[in-house]
Design goal:
- The protein is of the alpha+beta class.
- 39% of the residues lie in helices and 29% in strands.
- It has a 3-stranded antiparallel beta sheet with strand order 2-1-3.
């Protein structure tokens, strides 16, 4: 199972969109400062959204789609 997820620093704050095959472990890594440098720098630790996919290709396509969206 693959997961596309969105983390936020706070309401209307900085967003981070990621992809993982273990959502619980990845969020834990972010919160412990072992995730991406971006997440650590901007304090983006609050999980606000997640979707699950059976195939990696579907999850990758969705992640790319979300990253192209405008914030509005």
């Amino acid at each position: 199972m693959y997961h596309v997820y969105i983390l936020a620093s706070r309401r209307h704050g900085t967003l981070y969109i990621g992809l993982t095959n273990s959502l619980r472990i990845r969020v834990e890594q972010h919160r412990n400062g072992k995730g991406s440098a971006f997440v650590k720098k901007y304090g983006v630790y609050l999980l606000v959204y997640a979707e699950s996919y059976e195939r990696a290709e579907e999850a990758i396509a969705r992640e790319k789609q979300l990253k192209r969206w405008k914030r509005d």
